[in-house]
């Protein structure tokens, strides 16, 4: 089964890239913390399948640097 990610905004639109704004542990309740209501359940399956890119993937802390925050609107 191929996993893709869709957003519901006036109909379904496929999402190709995500800029993550939650901590690694909370990004996907199926992969990390089952008690989390943050993030997107199944996101890591879609990521591993290559159907969505996470611009600041879990484990890549460079985007969490405060110096990068000023550029967030341009990155998004």
UniProtKB/TrEMBL annotation:
Signal peptide: none annotated. InterPro entries: ATP-dep_Glu-Cys_Ligase-2, CP_ATPgrasp. It holds the Pfam family CP_ATPgrasp_1. Residues 8-76 form the Circularly permuted ATPgrasp domain. Coiled coil: none annotated. It comes from the Bacteria. This is Circularly permuted ATPgrasp domain-containing protein. It comes from Candidatus Phycosocius spiralis.
